[in-house]
Structure to design on (247 residues):
């Protein structure tokens, strides 16, 4: 684990010379968002998921990974990255800990006045077929409304062999919904979000989060995840997510 973290730090230091604006996180609390890292921006995340029950069948998780903006266009943006996910149980999944992801999209108002943000992407592309190859693809629309905040809606589809319910039946699709808002009445540094991922598989969950920006490029999310199916998703988790952008 320490070697992986050191590798990420090395990547970050290599790209520090790049110039780009501050980026917002490319997820909400749990589900993807329509946000995309700007060109040459390196985003590092360090996330922990701590179970409300510490039984062996409900392991805690650590997720570490970089995401990089790769397209130099204003109206068509893209990002790629990967995550190192470890539960500390030496399971089959832990033996193949790398998961890849990518996203293409366009921001609000880029197509026409009041047009929504649009994003298409995929994540949790694991390297162990039938074990970690969740291979989830999705589409999302989002629009920021005065006072209310940003509303997002979409749909995902994943592997029929990996995303299953407690009976082993396929449960590989579902809705993606979220609300998020920067609470400017209190502070521009304060952000709230609620999101939902449908499905009775391991990823289906309702999540709540609050974020505080400690610096222009550093923020922390504190959240709570309620899984749709305790037999596949496990006990609920408290999550802490540290997000750092370079430069």
């Amino acid at each position: 684990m320490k070697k992986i973290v050191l590798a990420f730090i090395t990547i970050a230091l290599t790209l520090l010379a790049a110039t780009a604006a501050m980026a917002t996180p490319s997820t909400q609390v749990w589900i993807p968002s329509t946000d995309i890292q700007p060109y040459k921006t390196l985003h590092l995340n360090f996330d922990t998921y701590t179970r409300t029950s510490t039984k062996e069948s409900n392991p805690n998780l650590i997720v570490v990974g970089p995401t990089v903006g790769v397209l130099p266009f204003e109206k068509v943006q893209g990002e790629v990255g990967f995550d190192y996910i470890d539960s500390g149980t030496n399971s089959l999944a832990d033996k193949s800990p790398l998961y890849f992801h990518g996203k293409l999209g366009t921001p609000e108002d880029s197509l026409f006045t009041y047009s929504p943000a649009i994003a298409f992407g995929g994540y949790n592309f694991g390297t162990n077929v039938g074990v970690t190859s969740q291979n989830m693809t999705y589409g999302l629309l989002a629009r920021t409304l005065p006072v209310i905040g940003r509303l997002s809606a979409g749909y995902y589809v994943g592997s029929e062999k990996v995303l299953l319910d407690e009976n082993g039946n396929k449960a590989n699709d579902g809705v993606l919904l979220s609300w998020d808002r920067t609470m400017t009445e209190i502070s521009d540094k304060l952000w709230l979000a609620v999101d939902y991922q449908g499905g009775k598989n391991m990823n289906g969950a309702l999540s709540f989060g609050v974020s505080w920006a400690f610096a222009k490029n550093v923020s922390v999310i504190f959240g709570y995840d309620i899984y749709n199916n305790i037999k596949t998703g496990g006990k609920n988790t408290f999550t802490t997510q540290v997000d750092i952008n370079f430069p």
Notes: Helices lie at 2-15, 230-233.
